[in-house]
């Protein structure tokens, strides 16, 4: 028990540091900033929607975009990335039924080597929007509530920002979604604390790919979409590129933006995480080993120490484990409240962390087998780098 006691104390100290010194990652108060009043002249906006085989979700998401009321010029460009399920035709039909903003459906040339499909589609979409001052990059599974577009532009213009991004509220309808989704956002915030990312001089930079409004001049200054053309985790890469070239970025949790993509079981959620987890570690076995060890120390040691200590009557070990577990659960509560989940779910975070650990290892195994980041019938087995 002596070794376990020391390890549990280290885990407790790590949790105290995370709670007090890690950019307030656990807080959920980073919400869309106000724009400081009505704009005198609203800038032109083009909404870019890359879509590949998205006929299942378009009937919910696309009408919400077309129905946006915006005081300036705005239109929607859906880039049908060689879908086989009638995505493009469905989008046109939805536009005829819905009305509202103008919709253009376009198809990019065949995917060249060195590009991910989404970024190639976005590059093509940017080319179709030469007059736009702002570009809203939003995924095909993202539904926007009334006022979303106006609020995003107001925040960008009023705050002097170059990139305004919101982490869409994901579905928590099924048992597995309720278990995994809040933790997914919590882990992302732990990796990229929103408050720290939003500081102009901080090195941390992150965005959420489902909803990112970028100033066209800032995108061009960063080298355009081509600068990140092979990035599997394109949202974070975009934020880094914009911030690195002097742009101001902002990331927060969404109140007006929701993901409508269903994850009915563990399998789809597993694939969502594992397809890019090893890319997040820059395909490094050393970082993978460190991540596995870190997850074990931070998330698994506290419950093991608490339960083993109680079973063996080693009360100091049990106390250290329980204290670390309590701090962990306390930092998880705000995210659970954001997703409408009960506080009783907080102690289950170590189990969810174990699942994420296994997903990360599986991501590395798939990469080593040459399957890499597989998505929508495409596989990116090797890290792609822009020249």
From TrEMBL:
Keywords: Glycosyltransferase, Membrane, Transferase, Transmembrane, Transmembrane helix. It comes from the Bacteria. Its EC number is 2.4.-.-. This is Glycosyltransferase. PANTHER family: GLYCOSYLTRANSFERASE (PTHR43646), SLR1566 PROTEIN (PTHR43646:SF3). Gene3D superfamilies: Spore Coat Polysaccharide Biosynthesis Protein SpsA, Chain A (3.90.550.10). The chain crosses the membrane at residues 281-301, 307-327, 339-359. It comes from Kitasatospora phosalacinea. It is an enzyme of class 2 (transferase). The keyword Manganese does not apply. GO terms for molecular function: glycosyltransferase activity.
């Amino acid at each position: 028990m002596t070794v376990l006691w020391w390890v549990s104390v280290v885990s407790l100290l790590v949790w105290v540091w995370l709670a007090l010194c890690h950019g307030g990652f656990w807080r959920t108060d980073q919400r869309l900033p106000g724009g400081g009043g009505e704009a005198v002249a609203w800038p032109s906006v083009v909404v870019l929607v890359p879509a590949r085989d998205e006929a299942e979700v378009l009937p919910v998401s696309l009408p919400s975009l077309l129905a946006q009321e915006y005081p300036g010029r705005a239109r929607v460009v859906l880039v049908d990335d060689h879908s086989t399920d009638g995505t493009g035709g469905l989008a046109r039909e939805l536009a005829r039924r819905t009305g509202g903003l103008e919709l253009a459906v376009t198809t990019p040339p065949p995917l060249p080597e060195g590009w991910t499909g989404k970024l190639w589609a976005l590059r093509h979409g940017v080319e179709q929007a030469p007059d736009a001052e702002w570009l809203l990059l939003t995924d095909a599974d993202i539904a926007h509530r009334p006022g979303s577009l106006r609020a995003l532009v107001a925040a960008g213009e009023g705050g002097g920002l170059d990139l305004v991004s919101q982490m869409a509220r994901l579905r928590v309808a099924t048992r597995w979604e309720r278990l995994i989704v809040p933790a997914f956002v919590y882990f992302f915030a732990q990796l990229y604390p929103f408050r720290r990312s939003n500081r102009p001089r901080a090195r941390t930079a992150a965005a959420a790919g489902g909803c990112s409004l970028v100033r066209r001049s800032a995108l061009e200054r960063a080298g355009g979409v081509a600068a990140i053309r092979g990035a599997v985790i394109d949202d974070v890469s975009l934020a880094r590129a914009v911030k690195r070239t002097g742009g101001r970025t902002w990331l927060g949790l969404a109140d007006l933006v929701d993901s409508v993509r269903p994850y009915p079981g563990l399998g789809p959620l597993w694939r969502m995480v594992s397809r890019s987890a090893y890319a997040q570690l820059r395909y490094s076995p050393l970082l993978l080993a460190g991540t596995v060890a870190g997850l074990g120390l931070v998330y698994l040691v506290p419950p093991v120490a608490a339960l083993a200590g109680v079973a063996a009557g080693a009360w100091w070990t049990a106390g250290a484990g329980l204290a670390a577990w309590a701090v962990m659960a306390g930092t998880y509560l705000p995210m659970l409240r954001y997703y409408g989940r009960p506080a009783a779910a907080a102690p289950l975070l170590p189990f969810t962390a174990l699942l994420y650990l296994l997903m990360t290892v599986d991501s590395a195994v798939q990469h080593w087998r040459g399957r890499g980041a597989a998505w929508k019938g495409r596989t990116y087995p090797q890290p792609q780098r822009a020249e």
